[in-house]
């Protein structure tokens, strides 16, 4: 058992990434001495992206991991205490709030900012992971720009997949939508837009078996796909693959304690980061399934810290 005494803070930030780090910067500058607890791989989804061209303030493309290191350094420099630990349970009924880490460390806090983010669902193929960031992406709005006049594939059948396919036609010359069934789950209006788009071809009843590519320079050149009805395997020539089979917010920890929607995203009040528990705030992809951008997550992190400061001054 851990011998450390309970660690108390005015603001406990659970999770890192643009939301957590920005919340930490604002909370620290408000002299709230925040404690930010992050897991083994701080920085969130941006640490798995390479070129970032849409974060304001940088004329040249920057690297996702570098941006997260900078934010982390900034949060530290203004007075955030960073702890590597994995919060394994929280009690939001107690006053102050309580959290326990896997290390055995117990934390108490007058307010909590949750920025645990979300993870894209992957197909879990070795080749997909190998080319992640080299032609395989889970975010069309982040990476579509890199596929001007190229052929790309999107895998999925829900709203996200259809929206991504339509969005990608702005850049790509051809978009192939691969779906394992013979009809889409997406809303009818979206399906209509999809069918009317000349650049999109739908490949029904098919799953991806393998991603094919070059080693030097590392890039995707094609896909092996299997028809689930005939078991026939064919190769498609593509320059990129977008995975759009959904995201999972990291909210298991808060089940039955905070209001969530049916997909597990934390619900906050309109124009606010406040959850249904006063003093508990949620920022970034853990509550946002619409925009999912680094800049919007950072904006919410700022909001959460300002709302926490206001809450604490009462």
The proportion of residues in beta strands is 25-35%
Helix content: 10-25%
Structural classification: alpha/beta
The largest sheet, given as strand count, sense and whether it forms a barrel, is:
7 strands, mixed
What is the gyration radius calculated from CA atoms?
21 Å
Task: Give the low-pLDDT segments.
Answer: none
Could you give the count of β-strands?
A: 19
Treating each run of at least 4 consecutive H or I residues as one helix, how many helices? 7
Order of helices and strands: EHEEEHEEEEEHEHEHEHEEEEEEEH
Word description of this protein:
By secondary structure, this protein is of the alpha/beta class. 24% of the residues lie in helices and 29% in strands. Strands 1, 2, 5, 6, 7, 8 and 19 form a seven-stranded mixed β-sheet that branches. The protein has a five-stranded parallel β-sheet with strand order 10-17-11-12-13, with helices on one face. α1 (17-29) runs parallel beside α2, α1 runs parallel beside α7 and α5 packs parallel to α6 (188-196). The longest helix is centred in the C-terminal third of the chain and has 20 residues, at 294-313. The model has no long low-confidence stretch (mean pLDDT 95).
């Amino acid at each position: 058992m851990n011998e450390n005494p309970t660690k108390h803070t005015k603001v406990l930030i659970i999770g890192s990434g643009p939301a957590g780090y920005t919340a930490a910067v604002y909370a620290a500058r408000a002299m709230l001495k925040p404690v930010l607890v992050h897991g083994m791989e701080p920085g969130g989804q941006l640490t798995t992206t390479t070129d970032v061209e849409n974060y304001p303030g940088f004329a040249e493309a920057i690297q996702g991991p570098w941006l997260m290191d900078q934010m982390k350094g900034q949060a530290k420099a203004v007075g955030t205490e960073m702890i590597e630990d994995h919060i394994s349970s929280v009690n939001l009924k107690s006053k102050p709030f309580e959290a326990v880490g896997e290390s055995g460390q117990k934390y108490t806090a007058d307010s909590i900012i949750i920025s645990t983010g979300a993870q894209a669902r992957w197909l879990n193929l070795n080749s997909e992971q190998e080319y992640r960031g080299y032609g395989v992406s889970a975010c069309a709005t982040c990476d579509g720009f890199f596929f001007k006049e190229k052929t790309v594939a999107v895998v999925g059948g829900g709203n996200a997949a259809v929206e991504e396919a339509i969005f990608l036609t702005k850049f790509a010359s051809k978009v192939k939508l691969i779906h394992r069934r013979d009809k889409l789950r997406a809303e009818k209006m979206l399906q209509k837009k999809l069918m009317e788009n000349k650049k999109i071809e739908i490949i029904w009843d098919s799953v991806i078996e393998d991603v094919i590519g070059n080693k030097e320079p590392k890039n995707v050149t094609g896909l092996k796909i299997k028809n689930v009805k005939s078991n026939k395997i064919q190769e498609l020539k593509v320059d990129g693959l977008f995975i759009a089979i959904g995201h999972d917010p990291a909210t298991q920890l808060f089940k039955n304690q905070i209001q969530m929607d049916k997909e597990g995203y934390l619900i906050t009040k309109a124009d606010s980061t406040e959850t249904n528990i006063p003093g508990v705030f949620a920022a970034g992809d853990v509550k946002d399934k619409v925009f999912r951008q680094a800049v919007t997550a950072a904006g919410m992190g700022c909001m959460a810290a300002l709302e926490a400061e206001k809450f604490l001054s009462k």
